[in-house]
Amino acid sequence: MNNAFLNSILPWEKSVTKAEAVGMSSERLERITTWLEQQVSSNRLAGCSALVARHGEIVYQQCSGAADMEVGKPFANDTVVRAYSMTKPITTVAAMMLYEEGCFQLDDPVALYLPEFLETRVWAGGNASLDQTYPQDTPMTVQHLMTHTSGLTYGFMQANVVDEAYRNSGVGQPSDVKDLAEWVKRAAAIPLICQPGSQWNYSIATDVLGRLVEVWSGMSLQDFFQRRIFAPLQMVDTGFHVKPENQARFAALYSPLSGADMSNVAKSADALAGPKPIGLKLQEGSAKSSYFNPASVFSGGGGLVSTMSDYARFCQMLLNTGELDGQRLLGRKTVEFMRTNQLPNNSDMADMGQPVWSETSYDGIGFGLGFAVVLDPVKAHIITSVGEHHWGGAASTFFWIDPEEDLYVIFLTQLMPSSTYPIRRELRSRVYQALIGD
To answer: Which residue in 263, 421, 267, 260 sits closest to 356, CA to CA?
Structure first.
């Protein structure tokens, strides 16, 4: 361990269990440490950290590299990162908490609560202009939002005229819109990219779901998160901005020397393959950031910052089927339903549209409520369990939860976009090879 920035696990020492006690090999887990160091020494990443927990015990926690190379700040166990789309599962949990309270049904039309979607039409597709549209065959439902089959899209895809309309109207980040209600109204004025329920398409759907949380609860999304999720789970460093007392722990954001444009995410995997120039460039430093200012638009799709310890508590709650340390957020059957593939006819994502970038691969992978679900590990070309569910963020962060192995893993770094390297697959193989018992 020669890396100058390699951090010990002392802050977590009392909570780290000997791996053999939960059926994992301490020696084999050290292969993760070697891999973390390689990410930094090869200039793939400035810094990173990984956590592995099994049977309710943390068995591995390690960091390597820098949170900010320019000032020599180490990537530490308590580094605050941009969670981006790792916000989505939290928003979906919030919505399902309200589902359990009887606020809505999954097949309710979105327009029942957001009337601005009553007249939203569907783009004709192909080379059609934006004014060539059709009415919705069936209405967009809440479940469509949770499964990214709503017909919404992302402006950063830069693949068609609908994406362009998102960018031109401020439906994205940065935006001139001052609150989530107005942001969603602008989105509803743009045609859908496809008929609801017909395709899986990564999108702003969870942002719209966040607005529904506000409507159903009568609270801002920020207040709901804080009162109903973060406080009960003791997620003390997670929020829509970095608190002043946490700013010294905030990480810088980097990108590779080429391929950093988010428009690359709409390209196929083959198009993104091939050699890349080695090295990193700074996107945003750690000393000055828009995240230091309180947010006005609370993005349920990508607005949170968080830490390893906070997100670990969220993952353990889900692995425990909705409860942690006596605080129950969701019922067991609700969490089991969220882990179940929701795509029609138990399809995988490859059957539901053109496989372009998202925070997961498509073959052998379905989608539950708020995260991807593994249907066929062989088809997905990864060693994992059927039912493992996962998601990540645009800055290459990632988590997965494996109920069969009673295990969860979190990886944090700050490299945009997350399609740059296959680090998620690489980490998976190093975690699963360390399993030696039940």
So the answer is: 267
Nearest Cα residue to 374 out of 388, 391, 360, 358: 388
Instruction: Report the half-sphere exposure of 316 (CA within 13 A, side-chain side).
Output: 21
CA distance 203 to 151: 8
Distance (Å, rounded) from C-alpha 47 to C-alpha 43?
Answer: 9
* Six token digits for residue 214: 């506000």
User: Given the structure tokens 């997670």, which residue do they identify?
Assistant: 238
Directed axis angle between helix 88-100 and helix 308-319, to 10°? 40
DSSP tally for the chain: helices H, then strands E: 13, 16
The pTM of this model reads 0.93
- Measure Cα distances from 124 to 55, 283, 309 in Å: 50, 37, 46
Strand ranges (DSSP E) for 42-120?
47-54, 57-68, 73-74, 81-82
pLDDT of residue 178: 85
Q: Which of 260-264's residues contact partners 24+ apart within 8 Å by CB, and which partners?
A: 260/416, 260/417, 262/156, 262/158, 262/394, 262/416, 262/417, 263/156, 263/157, 263/158, 264/357, 264/417, 264/419
pLDDT, tens digit (0-9, with 9 covering 90-100), for 245-285: 999 999 999 999 976 555 444 444 444 455 556 799 999 99
Calculate the alpha carbon distances from 338 to 234, 250, 379 in Å.
Answer: 23, 32, 22
Cβ within 8 Å of residue 406, ≥6 positions away? 54, 55, 56, 319
pLDDT given for residue 170 in this prediction: 86
Assign 337 to helix, strand or coil: helix
Angstrom distance (rounded) from CA 142 to CA 106: 5
Q: How high is the pLDDT of residue 1?
A: 34
Low-confidence ranges of the chain (pLDDT < 50): 1-14, 263-272
SS3 8: coil
Pick from 325, 253, 322: nearest CA to 75 = 253
Q: How far apart are CA 176 and CA 171, in angstroms?
A: 9
Query: What's the pLDDT score for residue 60?
Result: 97
Contact residues for 75 (Cβ-Cβ < 8 A; gap 6+): 5, 7, 46, 47, 48, 49, 63, 64, 65, 66, 67, 251, 413
Instruction: Give the tens place of pLDDT for each residue, 300-324.
Output: 999 999 999 999 999 999 999 999 9
pLDDT at 54: 98
Check: CB of residue 384 under 8 Å from CB of residue 428: yes
